Amino acid sequence: MHNVLVTLVLCCLLYSSTAPLESFVLSVIVTLTLVVLIEVFILCWFCQEFTTEFSNVLDAAYELDWLNYSPKLRRTIILTIMRLQKPPFFTMAKSTRLDMIFFSNLLKMAYSFYTLISKVN
After folding, report:
1. Whether pTM exceeds 0.90
2. How many domains does the chain have?
3. From start to end of 79-120, where are the E strands?
4. Phi and psi at residue 85, in whole multiples of 5°?
5. In whole angstroms, what is the distance from residue 49 CA to residue 60 CA?
6. Nearest to residue 37, comparing CAs of 92, 97, 104?
7. Contact 41, 104 (CB under 8 A)
8. Domain that holds residue 116
9. Four-point Cα dihedral 111, 112, 115, 119, nearest 10
10. 85 with 58: CB under 8 angstroms?
11. pLDDT truncated to tens, each residue of the chain (121 aa)?
């Protein structure tokens, strides 16, 4: 639901920025659009980096020379590797995965709605 709301906000801001407005109102609309974009971008970028760092930890665990370690430490490393094979990720409303793919899809959807509204008017 949140992604639809952000998309609609972006679409409305884009559409209102194309209307003939005073320069102050236009600058406020452009600023709001940039704030919304930056907010969503930072959130998606952080979530993407978090997931990427987990895969880096998995790679580092694979590269260990763990066969020469004690049996207890080997079991711990094996369990860690098994847990890291499915990296954690952040979701929105338990359904939408937050990453850069989500951000690009959000931009595409907002632009699609904007072009639809522009062609209708």
Report:
1. no
2. 1
3. 91-92, 96-97
4. -70, -25
5. 16
6. 104
7. no
8. 2-120
9. -170
10. yes
11. 566 777 778 877 777 777 777 888 878 888 888 888 898 899 999 999 998 888 888 888 888 887 888 999 989 988 988 888 888 888 887 888 888 998 999 888 888 888 888 888 6
